Amino acid sequence: MGKKCGHVDQNPEVTPRTDGCEECLLAGDEWVHLRLCLSCGHVGCCDDSENQHATAHFESTRHPIVESLEPGEGWRWCYVDEILIHAEVDVVDPRGNENNAMPEHDRSSFSANVTSALSAPLPLPLPLIGDAAVGPNGNRRMFKSICQRVRRCNKKNLEPTIELAVEIAREGREGRRIGTLFTFGDAEGVLARSRPLILDPLAGHSEQSREIRDPNLRGTIKELAQLDGAFVVSDQGIVVSACRYLDAVASDVVLPYGMASRHLAGASISQVTDAVAIVVSESSMVRVFDDGKLVAEIMPELWVMDHYNMQHSMPC
């Protein structure tokens, strides 16, 4: 049984106290989207807005639930339980314990943007980075959703690894799209089930210079991504090896039509080790595998729009 929100029945009927974000109106500031406090009627701006007044209101009052004031939306968010609540007062746990991860009206547009997942049905729709319907904090909530779907999640180092994969998918190299693969975690297990394709270009360099968050290394990896093979990233965020051929093959891995050897390698290595595999396809999609299963698909353009807090039609 999924987690339930204990605050749903505590909210009286309220009307918005203002036609826009209260604090932004007083200060003459702008906002992106609006949230209504269901305890007192306060209207605040969302977390993609510069001032994030809705969250600030919760932090100062502890009023638990807000409702989207965007046209066509009716979802609610409980800050205390971190649960998305449908307009019909159905409850969704972003940790993955319910059958639905977003309101019905958002799921239809979500499905139109996402390539078909595994042939067998998944317990939740695939989280799409950039589609922020899972919560009011946008991209950060979506990454949290992915974290709940993988066996081992280290936000400090897994998130920048995924970000780098998204950058490679979006930018390509020298005017052409490229594909590559990252494994994150259980580096020893991955190394034991792989072999070098060429002399490792990262061998002999200090750990400090091989940290995934180092801007200089990230530029180097973008160049090396043009070569064949996988990058192996440890739980500590160290790129321990590059240009690795993954020997692992899991016979019971099932992939959607159109996914080729790179995706099979990623799915297989994630099943026979404790690593998460992040695959950049030459179609500019980024896919995340764990335990042999496809757990997320990322469209780089949506990631960029959300990452830079651009004003667009998606909720934040």
Please give a handful of descriptors for the protein shown.
316 residues, Herpes Virus-1, YojJ-like (1, six-stranded antiparallel β-sheet, elongated
Helix proportion: 25-40%
Low-confidence residue ranges: 88-125, 127-139, 308-316
CATH class bucket of the largest domain: Alpha Beta
- Helical element count? 9
Total count of strands: 14
- Overall, the morphology is elongated
Structure description:
By secondary structure, this protein is α+β, with helices and mostly antiparallel strands. The chain folds into two domains: 1-103, Herpes Virus-1 (2-Layer Sandwich); 155-307, 3-Layer(aba) Sandwich (YojJ-like (1), CATH 3.40.1700. 28% of the residues lie in helices and 18% in strands. The chain has nine helices and 14 strands. The protein has helices at residues 22-27, 53-61, 104-113, 139-149, 155-171, 187-192, 215-224, 261-272, 300-307, and strands at 34-37, 43-45, 65-68, 76-78, 83-85, 91-92, 128-129, 180-184, 194-196, 230-233, 239-246, 276-280, 286-290, 293-298. The strands form two sheets. An eight-stranded mixed beta sheet has the order 7-14-13-12-8-10-11-9, sandwiched between helices. A hairpin with a 5-residue loop joins strand 1 and strand 2 (43-45). The longest helix has 17 residues, at 155-171.
Summarize, please.
The protein has 316 residues and is an alpha+beta fold.
